[in-house]
Amino acid sequence: MQRLRSRQQFQAVLASAPVAKTPHFALHRLSLDAVEGESTLFAQPGPWLGVLVPKRWARRAVTRNAIRRQIYACAPDASVLPRAAHVVRLRSGFDKARFVSASSEALKHAVRAELLQLWLGAESRGPLGGTSHVA
Length: 135
Description:
31% of the residues lie in helices and 19% in strands. By secondary structure, it is α/β, with parallel strands linked by helices. Strand 2 (18-21) and strand 3 form a beta hairpin. Helix 2 (61-74) packs across helix 3.
């Protein structure tokens, strides 16, 4: 699985509506088969994955990195994912009163459980559900 690196890649994927949402995460997907002109952005075949963890929702770098690692660890295998570009976006912060430590095991378990729910929600919408592209 390839990782999204450039701003243009992220912008192309985020222009599509989320295919799945949980209280803290949103999953955006852009089908690479149906989109013309994306061959320059996504030259390699197969699925792509990008992660957005804004400082707005996770102030400490330790927390952002822990969430980012959980996202990459929970992503389905490349053989299961469709030929599309995916972006997992943190859309709200975790409760500081409940997760006092910046990188606690409780936070990691909560993030992992929610990410598994997110990927299952995306599967239930079909392999390429919600792939509309807004220019």
